[in-house]
UniProtKB/TrEMBL annotation:
<dbReference type="InterPro" id="IPR018076">
    <property type="entry name" value="T2SS_GspF_dom"/>
</dbReference>
<feature type="transmembrane region" description="Helical">
    <location>
        <begin position="173"/>
        <end position="194"/>
    </location>
</feature>
<dbReference type="GO" id="GO:0005886">
    <property type="term" value="C:plasma membrane"/>
</dbReference>
<feature type="domain" description="Type II secretion system protein GspF">
    <location>
        <begin position="56"/>
        <end position="179"/>
    </location>
</feature>
<dbReference type="Pfam" id="PF00482">
    <property type="entry name" value="T2SSF"/>
</dbReference>
<keyword id="KW-1133">Transmembrane helix</keyword>
<protein>
    <submittedName>
        <fullName>Type II secretion system F family protein</fullName>
    </submittedName>
</protein>
<keyword id="KW-0812">Transmembrane</keyword>
<keyword id="KW-1003">Cell membrane</keyword>
<keyword id="KW-0472">Membrane</keyword>
Amino acid sequence: MTAGPEWPCLLLAAALLLVPSRVPVIARLCAGPVGGRAAAPGTRGPVDPVATATLFDLLAACLRAGLPTDGAVRAVVPTCPARLAEPLQHAADLLAMGADPATAWAPAGSEAAAAPEFEALARLARRSARSGSSLATAVGELAEEHRALVEEAATARAERAGVLIGGPLGLCFLPAFVCLGIVPVIVGLAGRVLGGALL
């Protein structure tokens, strides 16, 4: 009996089920590549600046479409980064219950306090509620600022990479320059000098 193509899959499944581990089987299957670890529940990484700029663009579009502030925030919460979801949902709930914008946009809990993106949005929302200015325009400008920061960081990384690449390239080309450029000149000059001395 020859082994079919399904045998490797069956052996892998049996190994996943039988190998003892502290991580549950489902978590190991969802961990991605071999050797990858599943993220522990409750841990949230840093906020992606591109995702934040996209979130602010989407929020500005919802506000321009005529949604009230609480409805616009509720609309973007499912697509926002994990660290911003809880404080934004909290602010939307308070606004929907008729709370004052200064109270609704106050940081609540450690998640909001640790997210400067939420604080920037909350500051704009409180200022817009006091002055009556357009929140959609301010949020759009905030998105542009985040996008500019991303571009500046990418440019800085590219320039730093160019500087770091220069060292190895110099080490590669320097021996060739010495061997093909300097050594023949020295040999030629030495030949002339020694030849003239011998004459």
